[in-house]
Structures are given as structure tokens and as C-alpha cells.
Specification:
This protein is an alpha/beta fold and 471 residues long. Helix content is 44%, strand content 13%. It has 19 helices and 13 strands. Strands 3-2-1-4-5-6-7 form a seven-stranded parallel β-sheet, sandwiched between helices. The protein has a six-stranded parallel β-sheet with strand order 10-9-8-11-12-13, sandwiched between helices. Helix 4 runs parallel beside helix 5 and helix 6 runs parallel beside helix 10. The chain is globular, with a radius of gyration of 22 Å. Uridine-5'-diphosphate (UDP) binds next to helix 1, helix 14 and helix 15.
């Protein structure tokens, strides 16, 4: 009797950053649940952190087809990767690319039949084409920001780019179809302000509109109902799009449907302070503002003090994540400056964010508008105050305020009185309105994940297509 062939093996290759690793591990598990084998490829640096701080190894024991595999990024161990990730990408293009090609050819012991790689890496598409393995691009930014990247050539051609931070940033941008109504210069990705059309970031992202259509499909961590006007424009350039987000919630929903009982998923690259959940347990319903600027953003000492005074003067309770490396140019956070509101404020180095946002005591999120944080907040039904730091965050924060009416966009301002007033507005004055809008959006996210919902159906289609296209 003929032997049944083993399930197809997909190699997933995320960008070596917390946000993308986080969401793509969830995608990995969803594919394992869909009957595929998965090799999860990360750089040595990320591999070491995952093995130290996350429970990926124990979590994936339930999936015998899962492998965590490491590849070198070509940089010395002590390189400050978090601060200088353009250097990481540059090094990977030169050093990791040939190693990746070898791996695809040898499979590291397994036969790789399909690749899912972060489009931000660039080179995996060339390599996969070269060795004849189908590749799906995944992007862990918003569809809106990706669409802006697609439109960079038109923005340059129309003369809307370049501009500088000294130009009038409130001028409307016309060359991004579907976003003409609300997009201003200040809402474009931060690198657009460089005043230089040859800026390395502009160069890096200009190729998106030509690269993405070359892939077998484009996988996005979003859901149709959240970004449908943009998605309908994007489909014109890149017809095969799978919107399967919010991934963190999609996984929970699939696991609940299978009745599987697995250890909690912690895929942090830092140690989580779980005591803040105990502190939250003792706080009133929707009374706490959660404050976090993600894994990469830094603030100056002055900005730290503006936030501190703004939060304290607002009179609201807050839980604030201040990473030990989050004050630019300082090796430690000057905690001695942040004294005097201990009964209302709680500071941690790193929090279990998804659980924090789902906690009934949390009523608002002051965020840097990273895409994962934004989606996690949308799903949890938590209104936001946005203080975007860079890249896609400038676009995301505009959507939060103008398109979705889920809170305030505080970009380009860091002033204690503005912070104080904005926090009061979100948590008190306009609380009901924002809570209502956030609850509606959260409900539409949940519907998209349910049987027959948009993200549910796109994932089914993705798994079928991977199985059909695999070589
Ligand atoms: N995160 C976390 N604990 C924290 C802060 C952030 O677990 O204290 C997680 C958060 O849930 C999200 C990711 O780190 O999944 C940050 O990704 P995002 O895209 O929001 O921002 P980035 O860190 O890439 O700027």
C-alpha cells in the first residue's frame, strides 16, 4: 500500500523584532492547527531571547511538526539591534541571504514546500523564486500603512514627497487613493519628513508595489471590516490578499473551538511582570489608563517628565510600562524622578499586554500605535490615546482618531498640560462615547473570527491555497 505523504512543511520567517515575532508565532500555531508542519526561522539573537523568556518550546510540544530554527544575522552578539535595526536588515541582506538559500535547498533535514516571509525582509522572495518554492508575503503593519508604501512612487511623482519637518505638516496628501479625506503630511510614515527622496527608508519601501504582486499572496494581520476602503484599493494592485487578523485573537478563537487546553502563550522577548495583574485586580472597573510605547520606542528625559506630570496631574490611575532601555541616551530609567503618586500609578519594566488590555480595570491605552498594540486594543475594546513614534505608527494613530473614532491622536505634541487634558477627556469627559465605539469595533473583530466571518474564511482559504500550491 502506498505510504501517505507527510503534511506539507511551511517555513515562516519573521522580521527579527518583538511585534512581528509575536504575531507570526500565532500564525505558526494556526497553521499547525490547520494540519501543516511549520519551521519557524528566527535570527540567533531572537532565538536566544525566545528560549530564555518565552514558553515557545513547551507551548509547541503539542505540535510534533513544529520546529524552531535559528539563522545568523551576521552581527556580533553585543550589537545594539533594537536601536539600529536598519543595520540588522542591511547585514541580513548580505550575510543571511546565502544561508537562507542553503536552508531552503537542504530544508535543514526537512523538505520545505512553501515559505511565508515578512515582506520587510525583501530577500526571501528573490531566493524562493530562485529555488522554485512558492512564497507568500506577510506584513505585520496596517493595510493602510502598506498602501502608503505602495503609493510612494506616485507621491514622489506628484511632488508631494519629499518635505521636511519644518514644512506645513497639516497640508492634505492627495496621492494615496482612499485616504484623501483625512491623510495629512504629518500622518505619513515618519521617514517621509526627511526632505530627501533618496532617504534609505524611502528606497527600502518604494519596491513594495512591485514586490508584493510577485508573491503567491499577501497575508495581512488585519480584518476586512476594519480597513475595507483601503483593502479594496490595494486589491487592484495585489489581487490575492488574505486578511486573517487579529492573529492573537484568531488563535484563541480556534483553540476554544477545538477545546484544546494548552499552557498560556507567552512569546515575550522580555520577562513579564505579572504582579501588575494583581494590582489591576484591586482597581475599579475601567479606571486605569495602561501606558506603553512598545518594544522599540524611546523617549528623552524631558518627554518622560512631561508624561509623568501629565499622568499624575490628570488624577487618573495608570499602569505604565517603562523598559529599562526606554530613555534615550541613558543606561537606566531615572526612577528617582518619578516619585509621588504611588497610590494611583504602577510602573513595570514589561507587562503581559494582552492580559492587561483584557482586564476589566483597564479603561484606556496610551500607546505608541504599533500595529500589534493597536489591534490588541481594538480587540479588547479599549479606547486609545496615540503618541506615535515612527514608521507606520503615524498612519495608525490617524486612523484611530479620524476613521474609527476610537480615541485621540496626540502626534507631534509632548506637553504635560495637553497630556493631562487628553487623558481626562478619554477617561472621564468623553468616556461613554469612546467606550461605545470601542465596544462596537471589538464586536466586529469578534464576528470576523467566528464561523463564516471574514478572517475565519480567509484563513481557511489560505490553508487550502498553501496545500494546493506547495511543491
Ligand atoms: N508588549 C508586551 N508587553 C509590554 C509591551 C508590549 O507584551 O509591556 C507586546 C505587545 O502586546 C505587542 C508587542 O509587544 O504584541 C509590541 O508590538 P507593536 O507592534 O505594538 O510595537 P513595536 O514594539 O513593534 O514598536
Amino acid at each position: 500500500m502506498a505510504k501517505t505523504p507527510p503534511p506539507q512543511r511551511v517555513l515562516i520567517f519573521p522580521l527579527p523584532l518583538q511585534g512581528p515575532v509575536n504575531s507570526m508565532l500565532k500564525l505558526a500555531e494556526l497553521l499547525c492547527l490547520g494540519g501543516l508542519h511549520v519551521t519557524f526561522l528566527v535570527t540567533d539573537h531572537i532565538d536566544a531571547r525566545l528560549r530564555r523568556y518565552s514558553n515557545v518550546q513547551t507551548r509547541f510540544q503539542s505540535y510534533p511538526g513544529f520546529r524552531l530554527q535559528a539563522i545568523s544575522d551576521g552581527l556580533p552578539e553585543n550589537h545594539p539591534r533594537g536601536d539600529k535595526f536598519l543595520e540588522v536588515f542591511e547585514s541580513m541582506k548580505v550575510y543571511t541571504k546565502p544561508l537562507f538559500k542553503e536552508l531552503l535547498q537542504s530544508g535543514g533535514g526537512d523538505r520545505i514546500s512553501c515559505v511565508i516571509a515578512d515582506g520587510g525582509l525583501g530577500f526571501p522572495l528573490d531566493v524562493a523564486e530562485d529555488v522554485g518554492i512558492p512564497l507568500f508575503i506577510v506584513r505585520t503593519i496596517s493595510a493602510a500603512c502598506l498602501w502608503v508604501f505602495f503609493c510612494l512612487p506616485q507621491l514622489i511623482q506628484s511632488g508631494e514627497l519629499p518635505f521636511t519637518g519644518d514644512d506645513d505638516l497639516d497640508v492634505r496628501v492627495k496621492s494615496v487613493p482612499g485616504m484623501e479625506r483625512f491623510l495629512r503630511r504629518r500622518d505619513l510614515p515618519s521617514f517621509c519628513r526627511s526632505g530627501n527622496v533618496a532617504d534609505p527608508n524611502i528606497e527600502l519601501y518604494k519596491g513594495e508595489s512591485t514586490n508584493n504582486p510577485r508573491a503567491a499572496g499577501l497575508i495581512l494581520n488585519t480584518f476586512e471590516e476594519l480597513e475595507s476602503p483601503i483593502l479594496s484599493h490595494m486589491c487592484g494592485v495585489c489581487p490575492n490578499i488574505y486578511t486573517i487578523g487579529p492573529l492573537h485573537a484568531h488563535l484563541k478563537s480556534k483553540l476554544a473551538a477545538t477545546g484544546a487546553s494548552l499552557p498560556d502563550f507567552s512569546n515575550s522577548l522580555w520577562e513579564e511582570d505579572r504582579f501588575c495583574l494583581v494590582w489591576l485586580d484591586s482597581q475599579p472597573h475601567k479606571s486605569v489608563l495602561y501606558v506603553s510605547f512598545g518594544s522599540l520606542a524611546t523617549v528623552t528625559r524631558d518627554q518622560l517628565m512631561e508624561f509623568w506630570h501629565g499622568l499624575v496631574n490628570s488624577g487618573q490611575r495608570f499602569l505604565w510600562v517603562i523598559r529599562h532601555d526606554s530613555v534615550a541616551g541613558e543606561s537606566r530609567v531615572p526612577m528617582e524622578l518619578l516619585q509621588g503618586s504611588e497610590e494611583r500609578g504602577f510602573i513595570v519594566d514589561w507587562a503581559p499586554q494582552e492580559e492587561v488590555l483584557a482586564h476589566p480595570a483597564v479603561g484606556g491605552f496610551l500607546t505608541h500605535s504599533g500595529w500589534n498594540s493597536t489591534l490588541e486594543s481594538v480587540y479588547a475594546g479599549v479606547p486609545m490615546i496615540c503618541w506615535p513614534y515612527f514608521l507606520d505608527q503615524q498612519v495608525n494613530s490617524r486612523l484611530v482618531e479620524e476613521e474609527w473614532k476610537l480615541g485621540f491622536d496626540m502626534k507631534d505634541t509632548c506637553d504635560r498640560s495637553v497630556i493631562e487634558e487628553t487623558v481626562r477627556n478619554l477617561m472621564e469627559v468623553r468616556k461613554d462615547e469612546f467606550q461605545r465605539n470601542a465596544a462596537q469595533m471589538a464586536s466586529s473583530a469578534k464576528t470576523s473570527l467566528g464561523d463564516g466571518g471574514s478572517s475565519f474564511s480567509h484563513l481557511e482559504r489560505l490553508i487550502q491555497d498553501i496545500k494546493a500550491k506547495s511543491v
